[in-house]
Amino acid sequence: MADLSQRDYEHMLDMAVAVLESRTPESMWHLVGQEILEVLHATTAIFVDLHWREKTGHSEGWAPEWVGRTPLAVLVGRRMRQQHPLFRYTASGERRPATVDEVCDRMDWLRSDCYHEAHEIYGTTRQMALPLPATGEVIRGFIMGRPGKDFTRRETALAARLQPLLRSVDIHVREMRRLRRVDEGEGEPADPEQKARGLGITPRELTVLNVLAEGLTAAAIARRLGISVRTVHAHLDRLYRKLGTRDRLSTVLLAEDLGLTRSNGG
Questions:
Q1: Rounded distance, CA 78 to CA 72, Å?
Q2: What pLDDT is attached to residue 110?
Q3: Residue 251 and residue 226: Cα distance in Å, rounded?
Q4: How far apart are the first and last CA of the chain?
Q5: Where exactly are the structural domains of the chain?
Q6: What is the pLDDT of residues 56-66, one digit of tens each?
Q7: What is the reported pTM?
Q8: What is the per-residue pLDDT across 200-250, written as a single tens digit (0 to 9) for each?
Q9: Contact, 35 vs 47, CB < 8 A?
Q10: Quick one: DSSP state of residue 191?
Q11: How far apart are CA 242 and CA 237, in angstroms?
Q12: Which CATH superfamily is domain 6-179 in?
């Protein structure tokens, strides 16, 4: 991974401070979007939360200021129908930041409607995806764009370093919005068992997931639950598949994000 400069780390600290000082979830993503533009030398930043198969979802855009006033819902929906390569890449479960040139042929990209419309509307010729944890075929994260030279290895490395911070912001924003709904009588505190059922996770798998969140090894989980290590691994494999993850750490982080563990679910 490319070495990062002191200024890169200062940018990350500035972003964290800006989020901590914010009082509303809406302003948090706005602040993050503005920082991402500066840190990654982008000219546009669009946050998307989309369901690839259903071609539905939500999007927000920042900077230049007029991006937020463009019909993003229409444009992003069209990008999904056009099979935008970065959307397709993220929907496949990939979570590593990547540029368009990394995931598709350059000439195919230049001939695509996605490229021509982005260039015409925003003036961008280069794009990069910065995914956030999500389940299944959900596309969640930032799509950045700019004209001229492609995003460098150092910039994609910096984007990867930003992911844990952005994941924490994402959890914080969701929790603030949930608490607001509860305060307004529009929602109830998260129910881990109900959430698990919605994802097709069985009660036994949820138990394994919660023990996994304690940091125990497969052998320790087996002793705790009175099952074999092989059975533990079978449960983990099913959890990875249902949550769209590939390892223990990402599974625990996503479970916390979704409110599936006791620490977040009560």
A1: 10
A2: 95
A3: 22
A4: 38
A5: 6-179, 191-265
A6: 887 876 656 66
A7: 0.65
A8: 888 888 899 989 988 888 999 999 888 899 999 999 999 988 887 878 888
A9: no
A10: -
A11: 9
A12: GAF domain (3.30.450.40)
Angle at 169 between CA 163 and CA 170, to 5 degrees: 85
Helix boundaries (H) for the chain = 6-21, 25-39, 72-81, 85-91, 100-103, 106-111, 113-122, 153-183, 192-198, 203-212, 218-225, 229-243, 248-258, 262-265
Spatial CB neighbours of 133, under 8 Å, sequence gap ≥ 6: 95, 140, 167, 170, 245, 250, 253, 254, 257
Q: What does the block give as tokens for 23?
A: 């009082």
Q: Is 191-265 in the same CATH topology as 6-179?
A: no
The C-alpha atoms of residue 152 and residue 42 are separated, in whole angstroms, by 12
**Distance, CA of 102 to CA of 81 (rounded, Å):** 21
> How many residues are recorded in the chain?
266
Instruction: Tell me the pLDDT band of 128, cut-offs 50, 70 and 90.
Output: very high
Show Cβ contacts of residue 244 under 8 Å, excluding neighbours closer than 6 positions: 93, 134, 135, 136, 137, 138, 254
Q: What's the CA gap between 92 and 125, in Å, rounded?
A: 23
Q: How far apart are CA 255 and CA 133, in angstroms?
A: 10
d(CA 28, CA 20): 9
Q: In the CATH scheme, what is the code of domain 191-265?
A: 1.10.10.10
Model pLDDT for residues 75-126, shown as the tens digit of each residue: 788 888 899 999 999 988 888 999 999 999 999 999 999 999 889 888 899 9
How far apart CA 188 and CA 266 sit, in angstroms, is 12
